[in-house]
Every structure is written in C-alpha cells, then in structure tokens.
C-alpha cells in the first residue's frame, strides 16, 4: 500500500464516519498488515480532539498510536524500540507543517467546531460545504505523511 493508497483509504473511512483518529490509524494498520479492531475502537474518543474537547487533532493521535503500536512494549518484559520516539517526533513536526494555515494542531483550530454544541456538529456533518472538507483533506494528508515516514524507515 503506497502513501497515496493510504491517503485515499483514510479519506474513504473518514467519509464513512470513522473518526479522524481511526481513519489514519486504520490506513496505517492496513499498510503494515496489522489490523487490530480493539486498537481502532480505543482510538474512537480521540476524534473531535481528545474526548470531543477540540484539543489535539485525532489525525495526529491516530498516526502516533500506529507508530507506538509498532515500537512500544505490550508488557513489562518487552523492550521499547527508540524509533517510537524519533518517528513520533518526525510525524508531529510534519503534522505541524500541515496545520500551520489552520493555526495549530488542535481540532478546534482546524474544524472550528464546538463538539459539545449539537447544532455545530450537525452543521459539520450535514453541510457539504462545512469545514469537514478541510478535515477530510487533512486526514488524507496525515495518512500520506505517515506512509512516507513508514517507507522512509524501511517499513511497509
């Protein structure tokens, strides 16, 4: 799966109502042949910025979760691979570049939605001209950047 395939997959999943965090993670899992629905479920509350607060964009947390799932430890006997930190930082820096025009990496800056306001959420999902278009593009760009990072590290 190429970075462009990851972009298209993430956009498709986001369009079908996966949260941004889940869409980016799912594209990464598919690329790495490591699909785990439990991890996808665990990332659900990261959409809309952690717990719908508008904080850190879920596309960022989804990518970092994928990297962590590849290199962190699953129990106390495992050793952590230091690539977890270096790749996560590289992705964060790339994501900061992708979101500069929106004012930062927080969901509230990108989507301009108060996720606690039902009317704003309805507008976001129901209006084809809402900022959902921007979020969709960013989800795709994040998945593409994650794919490039994985390939740059010799992972695919």
How much of the sequence is in beta strands? Answer: under 5%
* Radius of gyration computed on alpha carbons: 15 Å
Structural class: mainly alpha
Share of helix, binned? 55-70%
Number of helices: 8
Query: Which sequence of SSEs, written as H and E, runs from N to C?
Result: HHHHHHHH
Average pLDDT value? 97
**What is the global morphology?**
globular
- Rounded to the nearest angstrom, the distance between the terminal CA atoms is 8 Å
Stretches with pLDDT under 50, minimum 5 residues? none
Q: State the total count of DSSP E strands.
A: 0
Main beta-sheet strand count, sense and barrel state: none
Q: What is the gist of this entry?
A:
The protein has helices spanning 3-15, 20-31, 37-42, 58-71, 83-98, 107-111, 118-126, 132-152.
Topology record:
Elements: H1 3-15, H2 20-31, H3 37-42, H4 58-71, H5 83-98, H6 107-111, H7 118-126, H8 132-152
Helix pairs in contact: 1-2, 1-8, 2-4, 2-8, 4-5, 5-8
Give an overview in words.
The protein is mainly α and 156 residues long. The protein is 62% helix and 0% strand. It is built from eight helices and no strands. The chain has helices at residues 3-15, 20-31, 37-42, 58-71, 83-98, 107-111, 118-126, 132-152. α1 runs antiparallel to α2 (20-31). It is globular, with a radius of gyration of 15 Å. The termini are close together. The relative contact order is 0.20.
What distinguishing features does this structure have?
156 residues, 8 helices, single chain, 0% strand, globular, mainly alpha
């Amino acid at each position: 799966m190429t970075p462009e395939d990851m972009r298209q997959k993430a956009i498709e999943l986001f369009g079908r109502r996966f949260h941004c965090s889940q869409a980016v993670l799912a594209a990464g899992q598919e690329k790495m042949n490591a699909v785990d629905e439990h991890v996808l479920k665990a990332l659900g509350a990261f959409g809309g910025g952690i717990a719908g607060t508008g904080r850190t964009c879920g596309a960022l947390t989804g990518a970092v979760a994928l990297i962590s799932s590849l290199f962190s430890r699953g129990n106390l006997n495992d050793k952590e691979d230091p690539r977890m930190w270096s790749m996560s930082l590289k992705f964060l820096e790339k994501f900061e570049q992708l979101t500069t025009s929106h004012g930062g990496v927080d969901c509230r800056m990108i989507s301009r939605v108060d996720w606690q306001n039902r009317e704003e959420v309805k507008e976001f999902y129901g209006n084809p001209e809402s900022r959902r278009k921007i979020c969709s593009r960013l989800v795709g760009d994040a998945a593409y950047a994650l794919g490039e990072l994985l390939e740059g590290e010799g992972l695919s």
